[in-house]
Design brief:
about 550 residues, alpha/beta, 13 helices, binds adenosine-5'-triphosphate, binds magnesium ion
């Protein structure tokens, strides 16, 4: 894929090498992968890694990727999640075409295959409770013990399993287990559970079933039914591979997929566990699954991260079998890289300080041209109004400037970006002695930002015209957790950063009055900002996507030099 499509050129990795060899050596003529989310929560940036891999490989080698919902546990799964997952995969830029599947599509076939295993003496109904099964399972150093029900006859097992299906038994009363080897060094092969009784309606199959297959019994068989060639999953499933293979070897599977494992994505300052993310939402620590601080795809989108940046991040980190933790700065760097090219420059003031230009005619307004994107000349310019009263950033003024502070103070001249040079003459204070207004003069000869005599102020400030500026709520976001390894000291929730969201009331230039939700701009000198869906006409809300400070780029430059 080329840059033209917005998809970064892929680097090779061990999985791509396997795929290339399988095609070269004729083991497959086309590649079929799948992305198999369980619809029990929203997708996160770790899933994005898996999506970019699973959808990226067929784009590169020919073939297709199935979107398959692993919807085998109706207690945890909801339609809201199914819808959100589809929207997120599409937004990331991928298309499954006609290849949308659900594990629940195969419940009938899986049930038949379970009967086959029972008839062959390879599965049995066990009456042990979940606790007893766990207790019989043994440990890594001790073999398991056989269930007293392990040697039931196929006839008795068939009868009981059919009655499980018919709804005769309550939840947890019985399970169906594979009959493999209770002494296997691989715990996954110690008679794993294949079916559970769950009396709960399913989002798709309704009340048709009250027994549901486990992940292990559904996954490989679904792959085989769909003709998946390469089933790519994260390393924690490595130990399940012998079971994946055992089931396919012992069933009349219509095709023979292979499972390959890669390292899951871990990010500093970030938790990528759906269980924890659900808890953050349910306990109200965040504004919802799409809170701009969440590592969910919908949260990153609301935050203003472009899909292109997420895809290039996935390419950048690559795919390997080594578990590691990626610096969140690598993701932020990839996002800034895209936004620096694409985000129009605008003026916004977060902490406004009023400026009155004493020698500027009262009531006069003029339009100045401001450059939309210095990185992209074709983006052109836009008019910004200028008048006698302005707002600048309070932080850009010091009554007593420390050394190396070159911005505004009394007696000093600075440039207002795309406008004029102004000199501060005096300050106005409130009763508490706080500076609330600057009295300044401007030099009319410096219109556009250059002086005919060539003098150059040491600082250039952003600003907005007070009368035309649009008030806005601006939400300043930072990492959700205050330490790179949240939860390392046990209490994850104690590591939530109290300053992950700071809400301020500022002003933006009038061209942003109709900002589209999701549109990301750069507020000059401050960072990237994105209009939030909470915006209402006359009540704009912006999210700070990222500041301009790229500590990752600086770190790399230092290492390079
Ligand atoms: P969690 O453990 O957070 O609940 P999960 O892995 O159970 O997530 P699934 O919906 O089963 O969530 O995941 C769908 C696919 O995404 C799986 O193939 C899984 O391996 C992959 N995946 C999940 N988390 C990551 C991650 N952090 N990095 C890469 N791939 C991931
Ligand atoms: Mg899972």
């Amino acid at each position: 894929m080329s840059g033209e499509t917005g998809f970064p050129a892929e680097r090779s990795d061990f999985i791509r090498e396997i795929v290339a060899a399988d095609l070269r050596e004729g083991r497959h003529s086309t590649v079929v992968t799948r992305f198999p989310p369980e619809p029990n929560g929203y997708l996160h940036i770790g899933h994005a890694k898996s999506i970019c891999l699973n959808f990226g490989i067929p784009l590169e080698f020919g073939g297709h990727c199935n979107l398959r919902f692993d919807d085998t546990n109706p207690l945890k799964e909801e339609q809201e999640y199914l819808d959100a997952i589809e929207a997120d995969v599409r937004w990331l830029g991928f298309d499954w075409g006609e290849h949308l599947h659900h594990a629940s599509d195969y419940f009938g076939q899986l049930y038949e295959w379970a009967l086959d295993l029972i008839r062959a003496g390879r599965a049995y109904v066990d009456d042990l409770s979940a606790d007893d099964i766990r207790e019989h399972r043994g440990t890594l150093t001790e073999p398991g013990r056989e269930s007293p029900w392990r040697n039931r006859s196929p006839e008795e097992n068939l009868d009981l399993f059919e009655r499980m299906r018919a709804g005769e038994f309550p939840n947890g009363a019985r399970v169906l287990r594979a009959r493999i080897d209770m002494a296997s060094p691989n715990l996954n092969l110690r008679d794993p559970v294949l079916y559970r009784i769950v009396h709960a309606p399913h989002p798709r199959t309704g009340d048709a079933w009250c027994i549901y297959p486990t992940y292990d019994f559904a996954h490989g068989q679904s792959d085989a039914i769909e003709g998946v060639t390469h089933s790519l999953c994260t390393l924690e499933f490595e130990g399940h591979r012998p079971l994946y293979d055992w089931l396919l070897d012992n069933l009349p599977a219509p095709s023979r997929p292979r499972q390959y494992e890669f390292a899951r994505l871990n990010l500093t300052y970030t938790v990528l566990s759906k269980r924890v993310l659900l808890q953050l939402v349910n306990e109200g620590h965040v504004r919802g699954w799409d809170d701009p601080r969440m590592p969910t795809i919908s949260g990153l989108r609301r935050r203003g991260f472009p899909a292109e940046g997420i895809r290039s991040f996935a390419t950048e980190i690559g795919v390997s079998r080594n578990d590691s933790v990626v610096e969140v700065g690598v993701l932020e760097h990839a996002i800034r890289d895209v936004l620096n090219r694409t985000a129009p420059r605008r003026f916004g003031v977060l902490d406004p300080l009023r400026v009155v230009i004493e020698n500027y005619p009262e009531g006069q307004v003029e339009e100045l041209d401001a450059v939309n994107n210095p990185e992209d000349e074709s983006a052109g310019t836009r008019p910004v109004p200028f008048g006698r009263e302005l707002y600048i950033e309070a932080d850009d003024f010091r009554e007593e400037p420390p050394p190396k502070f070159f911005r505004l103070s009394v007696g000093r001249e600075v440039r207002l970006r795309s406008a004029y040079f102004i000199t501060c003459r005096d300050v106005v204070k409130d009763a508490a002695g706080k500076v609330v207004e600057l009295r300044c003069t401007f030099d009319p000869a410096t219109r556009g930002g250059d002086a005919p005599d060539g003098r150059r102020p040491k600082a250039t400030l952003h600003w907005v015209a007070a009368e035309q500026a649009v008030p806005a709520e601006i939400r300043l976001y930072d990492h959700l957790f205050s330490r790179p390894d949240p939860g390392a000291d046990d209490d994850l929730f104690a590591d939530l950063s109290p300053t992950s969201e700071v809400v301020v009331r500022g002003f933006v230039e009038p061209s942003l009055a109709g900002a589209r939700v999701g549109e990301t701009v750069q507020f000059e000198r401050l960072g990237y900002f994105c209009a939030d869906p909470d915006s209402r006409p006359g009540a704009l809300v912006f999210n700070r996507t990222l500041t301009l400070k790229d500590t990752w780029a600086r770190l790399q430059a230092r290492q390079g030099g």
